[in-house]
Amino acid sequence: MPGRPRSGRESTVPSTSAASRHLGVAGESASADLGELLSRVARGDEAAFGAVYDRLGAAVFGLARRVIRDPARAEEVAQEVFLQVWQTAARFDPERGRAKSWVMTLAHRRAVDAVRHDQAATNRERSYDWSSGPDYDEVNETVTVRLEHEQVRRCMDGLTDLQREAINLAYYQGYTYAECATVLDANPSTIKTRMRDGLVRLRDCLGVEP
Amino acid sequence: MSVDLHQLIAPYALDALEADDRSRFEAHLALCEQCRVELVGFLSTTARLGEAEAMTPPPELRERLLATVSSTPQERPVVTALSQRSRARQIAPRVALIAAVAAAVVGIGGFIAEHERADDLRADRSRLTAVMSAPDAATTAESAAGGGELRVIASSTHDAAVVVGASLSNLDVDQTYQVWRLRDGKPTSVGLLGRGPGMLYVDGIKDADAFAVTVEPSGGSPQPTSDPIVATPI
């Protein structure tokens, strides 16, 4: 349990830690803290906001960088995401989702919107890139993140080609499923199914609670 | 048709839907408990895909953010759509505010509220589903000033529409979003969305050209008292 907020109104706010804890993802033992931090952010606690940033700043920026590629634009998007966290933290309900997912979902939605907007006028076919993004070993320093990266890569390798390519294009490149179908020369309903099968496999491989 | 909607769950979790499919799927989520449960697991999975790309941001970003938030106001919590629902019925009895489905658009990124009174709303939901899944249902959307957007899913065969105020900013307690049906530029009230995101079922769209949203004093106004924050043609 992190430090309690200093506000006298605290007794009116139900504790969210129990709910957050049991919703925690395997290997994410500190998730209760993040849920609690978000509810403090919702009450205007700037120190808690700083702590949320310290926990998720690299994940949000890294995801934005991966999807958008342009570092300056990714930084803008990361800033928008955290401002949105600050402004709308009251909307997060730990009983209806997991804190980290909530922030990462905001981040992904914004990154995808940015890349679709930015690329609308360019030839996306030509800029289409099958590589795995920036050279990971150069930019990533912590052991934890490197292990996570390796685990995700290993689990992605366990997918069929079509599952992996569809998920890669959608999640990391911001393609709609219809665009994925065009690029992969497959039926759109096949792509929907492969995405779902692939997510189920990834979920199980990563040890995420179903 | 609902089987078809259900298959959008993976593209939804991956943000791989266009806006109209996204709206339809979010409406479907309000009706589908199994989808909501499955989505929690999928979004935790995609969050892991994102985390695996973590990269230290430039240090100035933290400083800039902390400086910015100290002067940035926050949304206040939305208490519930239920009180707004009863008020909306008094003012515009033809319009049912679908609280359970409205809850579906309150959360960002698909965090879906389950409404305790969901059973009471089953009849409303079936009308809603009928419009959403009509073969001729067409979606239009416009961005609202101040954030969010107004999506209209209209079906001529049902002569009805579902009007969704998605991700609208929360208003002060003494204000409400009011939805207007426009015919030849003349507004007629169709109901209130409340202080934040919400959804309305609207009967009778034959002569309507567009829907618009204004910010009004709590309880609504007989005629708009401010310029629309958004107008979406049908």
Percentage of residues in helical conformation of chain B: 25-40%
As an assembly, this protein is: heterodimer
Major interchain interface with per-chain residue totals: A-B, 81 and 55 residues
Q: List the strand order in the largest sheet of chain B.
A: 1-7-4-3-2
Measured by DSSP, the beta-strand proportion of chain B falls in 15-25%
Rg of chain A, please? 19 Å
Number of domains of chain B: 1
Main sheet of chain A, how many strands, which sense, barrel? none
> What is the N-to-C order of secondary-structure elements of chain B (H for helix, E for strand)?
HHHHHHEHHEEEEEEEE
Structural class of chain B: alpha+beta
Care to count the β-strands of chain B?
A: 9
Say which CATH homologous superfamily of the largest domain in chain A is assigned.
RNA polymerase sigma factor, region 2, helix turn helix motif
Helix fraction bin of chain A: 55-70%
What would you note in describing this structure?
- The complex is a heterodimer of chains A (210) and B (234).
- Chain A has 210 residues and is mainly alpha-helical.
- Chain A has 2 domains: 11-121, Orthogonal Bundle (Rna Polymerase Sigma Factor, Chain: A); 128-210, Winged helix-like DNA-binding domain superfamily/Winged helix DNA-binding domain (Arc Repressor Mutant, subunit A, Orthogonal Bundle), CATH 1.10.10.
- Chain A has helices at residues 17-22, 31-42, 46-68, 71-88, 99-119, 124-127, 136-139, 143-157, 161-173, 177-184, 188-206.
- In chain A, helix 3 (46-68) crosses helix 5, helix 4 crosses helix 5 (99-119) and helix 9 packs across helix 10 (177-184).
- The longest helix of chain A has 23 residues, at 46-68.
- By secondary structure, chain B is of the alpha+beta class.
- Chain B has one domain.
- Chain B has 8 helices and 9 strands.
- In chain B, strands 1-7-4-3-2 form a 5-stranded antiparallel β-sheet. In chain B, strands 6-5-8-9 form a 4-stranded antiparallel β-sheet.
- In chain B, strand 2 (138-143) and strand 3 form a beta hairpin.
- In chain B, helix 3 packs across helix 7 (99-106).
- The longest helix of chain B has 19 residues, at 33-51.
- The chains are: A mainly alpha (210), B alpha+beta (234).
